[in-house]
Write a structure and sequence with these properties.
- With 88 residues, this protein is of the alpha+beta class.
- The protein has a domain of 48 residues.
Length: 88
Amino acid sequence: MTEKEKTPTPGRAWDNHSTYKTFEDAGVAREKLKSMWHDESIEGMEVKVRLRSDGTYLIKTRSPAPEKKTKKTKTKKKSKKKPEDNNG
């Protein structure tokens, strides 16, 4: 890898919620989850439907991103140099 290329940082993890045989059933369950979160005033929850290799549909959810704490940066204090004696 070159210096300019950066390795991607992974995002928040998804949790497996439930599986369904059809996309329509999974879609209904997804909308129920969204409305439940809206009624409970939970913001930032995410939901998605994924097709698994066995032909079933998986609902995945993840919670909102935690609030990032801002780091306080300390300023470096410049040390004053003492004047040097060049009197010989």
